[in-house]
Amino acid sequence: MGMAVVTLKKGEGRLLKSGGMWIFDNEIDTVMGNFENGDIVLVHDFDGYPMGRGFINTNSKITVRLMTRDENVDINEELLEKRVRDAWEYRKKVVDTGCCRLIFAEADFLPGIVVDKFSDVLVVQSLALGIDRFKETIVELLKKVLAEDGITIRGVYERSDVKVRKQEGMEMVKGFIGPEFPTLVQIEENGVKYEVDVKDGLKTGFFLDQKYNRLAIQKLCKGAKVLDCFTHTGSFALNAGISGASSVLGVDASELAVNQATENAKLNGLEDIVRFKCADVFDLLPQLEKSGEKFDVVILDPPAFTKSRNSIKNAVKGYREINLRGMKLVKDGGYLATCSCSHFMDPELFTKTIGEAARNVHKRLRQIEYRTQSPDHPILWSADESLYLKFYIFQVVDACAFDEYGVVFGHNLSH
Q1: Is 395 helix (H, G, I), strand (E, B) or coil?
Q2: Phi, psi at residue 193, to the nearest 5°?
Q3: Interatomic CA distance for residues 240 and 217, integer angstroms
Q4: Closest CA to 300 of 391, 196, 203, 211
Q5: ∠ at Cα 236 (231, 242), nearest 5°?
């Protein structure tokens, strides 16, 4: 039986034609032939020109996720193995592979699936029906490829317990793929040790995308008094502590996360320097300001304030408020690290929002670095969804230290 054929409307498929991998429901003219959701289909332009092969799912607004632009290439184990090998070879070149994201969905040409490696454990998150049929094959191929480099995987855990699966017509799934194993896994990153809870931690258990952003703040923290907001399991706080900070306060609203962060501090012998507090950051920062607290370094790593275009306005208010409050707590000449992990908060809007916050509290920002996610979360040009993390490091200077004639701290810039 031949594959069903999806034909685009005339003038549609602009994302696909510019290098993207998604076809939306409103771009499709006809689907000819029999299929079940999750099946592989052929994709043609309005005039019959072949566009490739991909998975179809009429339950999803992303109706087709392209797997190949060559309609003569079979979507089989051989193709999947090539994609897995390519992903691993890339990561060996660009990232510390002790813990890293092995597969990053569309950016690794395996749409809808991510796989994280925590030491000798893999964590899988499958978000699309078509690729879900191949997830166990992909896991076995990863084990095979890693074994060739002497890496034995002792266990695999699935964290597909996310609501987006319901949009694909799938149930949320969480549990072992294969034999059971202890789900608290120790890793080391940037010289810091962590216990990662792959069963009950957020998402896959640990945010690997900030790996080198955490490293970037170390050089600013020696001898510093540091505030780490939305600390989760303490990653930025512990990077500050291990680099020689004089004191670090990490804050998170989750008691589970704070307890884990405290254990991570003990694991690194930093419990006397790095302490954690369970509190709502939006409530705590005004209290710290009122009590006259100031910090050499303030780190803001909030969760995504928006996961859709519809809530961007409220997200902007949230980012503006948190950055405004954070800047007020930075000593004159101190440092602010601030980020957004929301794809819908694009770099231009995020930058504008930080600028507005600075003006509102009469601060000048001297940009030190602008960074994105670590390279094991590759940014695939033309796949806009693969760029989501924006990370700035600034020096924060009181605006009153400057005047319109260019005098800074009593020194004329013209000389």
Answers
A1: strand
A2: -95, 145
A3: 7
A4: 391
A5: 130
Cα Rg, the chain, nearest whole Å = 24
Q: Is 393 left (phi over 0), alpha (psi -120 to 50) or beta?
A: beta
Token pair of 112, please?
């809808």
| Tens-place pLDDT, residues 332-345 | 999 999 999 988 88
- pLDDT at residue 342, rounded to an integer: 87
Give the whole-angstrom CA distance, residue 19 versus residue 9: 18
In the block, tokens 């799934």 appear at 173
Handedness of CA 309, 313, 317, 320 (dihedral sign): positive
**Entry pTM:** 0.91
Which of 229, 278, 341, 400 does the annotation list as catalytic?
Answer: 341
CB half-sphere exposure, 415, CA atoms < 13 A: 5
All residues at 6 or more sequence positions from 231 whose CB lies less than 8 Å from its CB, including other chains: 237, 250, 251, 252, 257, 258, 261, 276, 301
In sequence order, the 6+-apart residues with CB closer than 8 A to the CB of 295 are 224, 225, 226, 227, 329, 330, 331, 334
Q: How far apart are CA 237 and CA 83, in angstroms?
A: 36
Cα 389 to Cα 79, 136, 193, 210: the distances in Å are 30, 29, 23, 9
Is residue 221 annotated as part of the catalytic site, yes or no? no
Q: What is the DSSP letter of 234?
A: T
| Residue 74 neighbours by CB under 8 Å, 6+ apart | none
- Position of tokens 């930025």? 236
- Looking only at the bridges linking them, the beta strands covering 173-176 and 22-24 are unpaired
Question: Tens of pLDDT along 112-168?
Answer: 999 999 999 999 999 999 999 999 999 999 999 999 999 999 999 999 999 999 989
Residue 197 in this model has a pLDDT that exceeds 70: yes
Positive or negative, the Cα torsion across 80, 81, 86, 87? positive
Tokens of 6: 């999806």
Tokens 């266990």 correspond to what residue? 155
Average pLDDT over residues 73-90: 97
Q: What are phi and psi of 15, to 5 degrees?
A: -65, -45
| Banded pLDDT at 1 (limits 50, 70, 90) | low
SS3 content of the chain, % helix, strand, coil (to 5): 30, 30, 40
Query: Is residue 203 pLDDT above 90, yes or no?
Result: no
